Structure formats: structure tokens, C-alpha cells
Amino acid sequence: MTVSLRAISTAVPSTTLVQPEVRDVFASQPGLNRLAQRIVATSFNVSGIETRYTVLEELSRDAHPEVPVFFDVESGELLLPGTKARNEIYAEEATKLYVGAGRAALEQCPGVEASDVTHVVTVSCTGFYAPGPDFMVARELGLPAGVQRYHLGFMGCYAAIPALRLAAQLCEADASAVVLVVSVELCTLHLRSSNDPDTIVASSLFADGAAAGIVTSRPPADGERTLDLDRFATRITPVGEGDMAWKIGDHGFEMVLSNAIPAIIDEHITGALEPLFEHDAALAEALATDGSSDAVEHWAIHPGGRSILDKVESRLGLTEAQLVPARETLRDYGNMSSATVLFVLQNILESEAAGDGDRVAAMAFGPGLTVETALMTVRA
């Protein structure tokens, strides 16, 4: 049985953040010491990001709310709302994106209707509410009353890959299954001014976005471009547990994102790919002989930051062209946590460079330090 990912859809909020403008706002915050100002300038300037998106309309140049919550446009000061205020916005705005992305995936999937969906898997690490997004998606899209629902929460940037793995396992267990997977992250709800280098780096990278797809063993329509989900693997690196973390604070969620992460990935990325490639002799040999770029045509790397992509490209001997989908996603959207790798996969699938039978290796990193990988095949 072949299980495929079909109809990848993506969405972002309407408010655009232009990176140099955001940099200037963060650099001008009161209480920022000189070292922090230099870190702000460096982090934003070398991020590889040009634009990002946010649900916070008051961050728009044209917004002038009577009672600002996150940003006082008159003084230029970033405010510090509590976690409750941030999460209430998450519940309202994330629901819109969950439903919108899910509806778009269904509309784009030939031969699949809302009534066909047997399972819903939702993903997020940037907010919580109950009844949760899985419930809201099922209700608003008119899914069957008996649809099975799962939510993968607070896993971090790698969570979309376990979501696809779960969806594939459900399809393998039941050939009639049709699984709607939806990831929504509103990272900008948790950005703040700080002298802490980790917080500054996070503020220079993270953004809001949503992505969805249909996972099923139903055959695709003629001419439909899909991704066969061939294999998944997980690897926890022996170091790095404290270098990437996500904690709940009194003023939102607090990201730990140390500058040691690129070096950790550089050292352990080959080992993380070994369990993914070990069942294919040609792929295993290619990895062992630095021939990964020839054995796998396309690489959907989670663009956690420009330095991470640089390390992956160098360590695996990838070509510049193979990192274009990840770099373009980072440039145009920033790091949208778990949703981001689905944006990269969509970029690859829609590219003229992706031909029938091409292999795709997907990889995402998160707290642990955890590396989640997937091997896919383009069908066009």
C-alpha cells in the first residue's frame, strides 16, 4: 500500500513584518544595553529573512489601537502582556488559520470531500485551548461526527513530521482512512524585548503561519502532484538538551535557542539520517561517502535559521540549488516553527525541478535536541 501526502496548502496572516523595520524597533527599546543592541543588529541582519507575518495587527504601520497590548506606536515601545492575554489571541486567531488551511487542503484535493475525512491531526506549540483546534476544524469544516481527532502539542519545530508519520500509520492500519493534518503556529505572540542573547535571536527569526495536507492511500487524480510517504525516523542527539527549549513564563512562552545549535547539528546530522537511509543500500552508501546530494534530489530542511542551513549544506555536501526551497521559505516567511517544513515541501512539490520518482529527504529540529526525518518520493 502506498500512502501519499496530497494537497499541501499554506496560509499566513495579513500583517507583514519587514525585517529591517522590525530590527530598528527592537534595537530602540528602552533598557537595552549596548551589547544587546549589537546582538540585535547582527541577528536581524544575518538572519536571511526579508519578510515575516504576524496575527498582531497593531504591529502594522497603519494600526493605531486605542489601547495597545503589544506595541505602543506613539512611543515605539514593545509592551509586555501576560500569558493569558497572549493565549486569548492565540485561541481566536489560530482557529481562523486552522480552519482556513484545512478547508484549502480539502478544496485542492481531487476526489476527497469533507465527508471522507476519518481522522484529524492538529499541531501547535504556541498556544492552548479546549475544546481544541482539532474540535474546531471538525466542526467548522463539517467533518463526520465520528471523526477521530488528535492534537500534537508543545513539541516544537519538528512536530509536523511526527504528525505526518501518525497520519501514515493510521492509513496503513486502515486502507480507507483519510487524514487531515493541520499545523498552525503563532510565534510572534511570544516575542519580547530582552538583553538575553537567546531571546534576541528568537525575536529575529520567528513568525506566524499555517499549513495543511491530506494523507491517504487513495490514488491521486491524473496529473496531481503528490508525495509518497516512504519512511520516517527519529534521533535524539546525545547533547543539546538545554540548547533548545520552550517554557511557559508569566509573560508568554520563553524560547531558549543557543548559538551552539548549528554546531550540534553539524556534528550529529549524519547520525540522524542513518536510521532513515539504513533500509536502502544505495542511500546508506551515499551517506557514508558524502554522496547524499546525488542519491536524494531534494532536501526539505526546516530553516531554523540561516546558520543551520549553512551547516546542513556544508556537512551533507548539498548543492546550493538543493537548499533553495528552504532558503526561500526562510527569506519570505521566517521560522514558523512546526508549519515551516510543510512550506518547504510545498515549494519543492510545485517546483519544475521536481520530477516523477525524485526522492525528497525532509528534516526538522526541535527541543531535545530532537531530529525528525522523512523520506518521500515525488509523484507527478
What does this protein structure show overall?
The chain is an alpha+beta fold. Helices cover 36% and strands 25% of the residues. The protein has twelve helices and 15 strands. The chain has helices at 19-27, 34-45, 83-107, 133-140, 160-173, 197-205, 261-277, 281-288, 292-295, 306-316, 324-333, 340-350, and strands spanning 4-11, 15-18, 51-54, 71-72, 77-78, 119-124, 148-153, 178-186, 208-216, 226-236, 244-249, 252-257, 298-301, 359-366, 370-379. α1 runs antiparallel to α2 (34-45). The mean pLDDT is 94.
User: Which outline best applies?
Assistant: globular
Strands, total number: 15
Helical element count?
Answer: 12
Estimated share of beta-strand residues: 25-35%
Order of strands, widest sheet: 7-6-8-9-1-10-15-14-13
Helix proportion range: 25-40%
Element order: H for helix, E for strand: EEHHEEEHEHEHEHEEEEHHHEHHHEE
For the terminal residues, how far apart are their CA atoms?
Answer: 18 Å
Evaluate the radius of gyration.
Answer: 20 Å
* Low-pLDDT stretches: none
Note the main sheet. 9 strands, mixed
Mean pLDDT across residues: 94
Structural class: alpha+beta
Organism: Agromyces ramosus
Family: Belongs to the thiolase-like superfamily. Chalcone/stilbene synthases family.
Domain Chalcone/stilbene synthase N-terminal: 5-219
Pfam families: Chal_sti_synt_C, Chal_sti_synt_N
Note the topology.
Layout (H helix, E strand, L loop, with lengths): L3 E8 L3 E4 H9 L6 H12 L5 E4 L16 E2 L4 E2 L4 H25 L11 E6 L8 H8 L7 E6 L6 H14 L4 E9 L10 H9 L2 E9 L9 E11 L7 E6 L2 E6 L3 H17 L3 H8 L3 H4 L2 E4 L4 H11 L7 H10 L6 H11 L8 E8 L3 E10 L1
Parallel strand pairs: 6-7, 6-8, 13-14
Antiparallel strand pairs: 1-9, 1-10, 2-3, 4-5, 8-9, 10-15, 11-12, 14-15
Keywords: Transferase
InterPro entries: Chalcone/stilbene_synt_C (IPR012328), Chalcone/stilbene_synt_N (IPR001099), Polyketide_synthase_type-III (IPR011141), Thiolase-like (IPR016039)
Family: Belongs to the thiolase-like superfamily. Chalcone/stilbene synthases family.
